[in-house]
Amino acid sequence: MFRTGQVPSGRPAAGEPVRPAAAAAGVRRGLRKWGWASAVVVAAAGFAAGSLTLVQARGPEQPSPAATVALAALPPEAQATHRLILRGGPFPYQKDGTVFGNRERLLPLKPRGHYREYTVRTPGERTRGARRIVCGGKPPTQPEACWYTADHYASFRLIQP
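^ thats the sequence. predicted structure below, dont judge the formating
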């Protein structure tokens, strides 16, 4: 009927270890019963009491040396996009050359407007796809640095000319 170490409520007896899955289930039951608003109030109270600290992650100031790629090693479509950037266009997509906000904070932190994004065509893709080149500096035809992403801003590699 009852497992060893449990009381009729299904909770562990005093002094018995709590398994993580059971603890998570208890939290979910509590949130269903009391609602998310209560969880926010408890978190705010913990923050006000100084027992809760919020931390914001930040990307690296400079990409690591391992996160580089030679321009010649990029796909031919990326090399063609890079040549268009240096020439100033014309670009095949309306969004090419627009400001990249660096919301992911994976590139070095710069003022808004420093970075611009360009689409790298993906063969067989009907939409813009995930591949991009992001360049920083002014004017856009003489960028200080360019980064390549094949996974829609989840990671970047600094392009070495």
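DSSP finds three helices and six strands in the chain.
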